[in-house]
Design a protein that fits this description.
This protein has 364 residues and is α/β, with parallel strands linked by helices. It is built from 13 helices and 14 strands. Bound molecules: NADP nicotinamide-adenine-dinucleotide phosphate.
């Protein structure tokens, strides 16, 4: 099979570098184009990331001398790319305009940015949960006035550590009424150089701008439905979130307390629901899909970021410490790798699903 030609917009950043690393030798996609800010444009990729390549794997040799383009040069991307991944750190309005410019020029955008998460015809996709939201793409394409370009986004990275386990319970017939979630989020979630070391070492920062609002609102779109060509939010669940930055390099963890709206399952049944849960990415055997998307760990002190974040290509969500709650019904701990499952890996899985569903095709 001939691979699709891919651009990474924001390739020099934390998420962009993870895209470059994870797409090296990908069976369906080949990186042929990289773009970033005007500061990096015109340099070779090797020069642009000199002194700030943060991956353990070395820079793929075939990309060392590729010239970094300016992210705003949509015409250049159009010549080279069948679609692009987008992970840029600029203000929201500028991201919207940039992603719209790609889509209206017929280039599909698989985005990690938050700008379009609440646009009424843009799917916010966790491939195991809401693949049916892709049905809205044709009506988005009408807005962009072409039948090729569109934008699909990923939700906030910290949601990944608990939304799939929560969805698995709802899908099994146990709707949830109230949820309190307290996250402990890795420093890599703030990009590079991120939070200063003097703020992070020997410390916890109990505030991440905008993160609590995202944790409380984004799940409602993900769990929602499409009505009359627009997303309708799920109304069944109240969420209260506390988001903290902790001195962990990779791996967002969440302590979650749940109250079910109707009947409540037994503890052993919940573990079985989680361990048995599979969805469309597993049925389609997508290349980056974890074999088991939710892994329950019986050890009393797991999951832990350093020990468990890399399970199943760093794409699995690990859960543990499921126990009764004195206030709600149950509590548990969830963990996922924020720059893989929560960012580049999740974006690649979304693109694999889009390709399997016929939304990504050869154009160049
Ligand atoms: P980052 O490490 O700060 O990288 C930012 C990227 O954006 C770089 O490639 C940078 O290029 C580029 N950029 C900056 N200003 C630009 C401009 N004016 N025009 C075009 N490109 C510009 O940030 P990151 O952590 O990778 O995050 C990127 C996006 O992904 C953000 O929207 C973030 O919220 C989201 N995200 C991050 C994570 C995570 O775990 N880190 C998870 C999920 C989502 P230069 O190198 O040329 O400056």
């Amino acid at each position: 099979m001939e691979k699709l030609k891919v651009g990474v917009i924001g390739a020099t950043g934390m998420v962009g570098q993870n895209y470059i690393r994870l797409l090296n030798n990908h069976p369906w996609f080949e990186v042929v184009y990289v773009a970033a800010s005007a500061r990096s444009a015109g340099k070779t990729f090797k020069e642009a990331v000199a002194g700030r390549w943060l991956m353990e794997d070395t820079l793929p040799v075939q990309l060392e001398n590729i010239i970094v383009e300016d992210a705003t040069n949509v015409a250049a991307a159009k010549k080279h790319c069948d679609f692009v991944f987008s992970a840029v750190e600029i203000d929201k309005q500028a991201v919207k305009e940039l992603e719209d410019a790609y889509a209206s020029n017929g280039i599909p955008v698989v985005s990690n940015n938050s700008a379009h998460r609440h646009t009424s015809d843009v799917p916010m996709l966790i491939a195991e949960i809401n693949d049916h939201h892709l049905e809205i793409i044709p009506s988005q394409q009408k807005r962009f006035n072409n039948d090729k370009g569109f934008v699909v986004v990923k939700p906030n990275c910290s949601l990944q550590s608990y939304m799939t386990p929560v969805y698995a319970l709802i899908k099994a017939g146990y709707p949830i009424q109230d949820m309190i979630v307290t996250t402990m989020q890795a420093v890599s979630g703030a990009g590079y150089p991120g939070v200063s070391s003097l703020d992070m070492v020997d410390n916890v920062v109990p505030y991440i701008g905008g993160e609590e609002e995202k944790s409380e609102i984004e799940p409602l779109k993900i769990l929602g439905d499409i009505r009359n060509g627009e997303f309708e939010s799920y109304k069944g669940i109240n969420i209260s979130a506390h988001c903290n930055r902790v001195g962990v390099i990779d791996g967002h963890m969440a302590c979650v307390s749940l109250k079910f709206s109707e009947r409540k399952p037994e503890i052993e049944e919940i573990k079985e629901i989680w361990n048995d849960f599979t969805a469309i990415p597993q049925e389609l055997d997508l290349p980056l899909a974890p074999k088991q998307p939710v892994i329950y760990m019986e050890e009393t002190d797991r999951p832990q970021p350093r020990k468990d974040r890399n399970l199943d290509k760093a794409m699995a969500v690990t859960v543990g410490r499921l126990r009764e709650c004195n206030v709600f019904d149950y509590r548990f701990v969830g963990l996922s790798h924020n720059t893989v499952r929560g960012a580049a890996g999740g974006g690649i899985l979304n693109a694999e699903l889009l390709k399997a569903r016929g939304f990504l095709n050869r154009q160049v």
